[in-house]
């Protein structure tokens, strides 16, 4: 056992470096983060939080669009949360609805802290199913993520197995 420890001890000190700021580097001589790895990493168990707003089928909020071709907040599809530190956030939304006329369009977009992100359009069809996601780096503090729409047609949702009006936010790290 002592031979194994003596054999691997020099290898550990060669590969791992700790600088004066208490950062640890693995195969990285000058680590700039708490753990700075030069190479592939395999990890089990990481912390994340999921926020779900809205729902699918019978849990989807009923929605009737204001069809004046101006941007409106999707009713009930907004989430405000706070972060303790900067982190990566994945926001994903799904919307399905229909218009009896089968004409017109609907544009749905993601808005993070007042900044417009991804948007998607569906046009000139009776039924629309839209899904989009966005990766963001958010700073520490309070954040609001919401879904907005714009249409020139009377789109709406009703209770049904094909309906969705849903926002999911996946926050990596602590919050």
TrEMBL record:
Top-level lineage group: Bacteria
UniProt entry keywords in alphabetical sequence: Signal
Signal peptide (residue range): 1-21
UniProt protein name: Carbohydrate binding protein with CBM6 domain
Native source organism of the sequence: Winogradskyella eximia
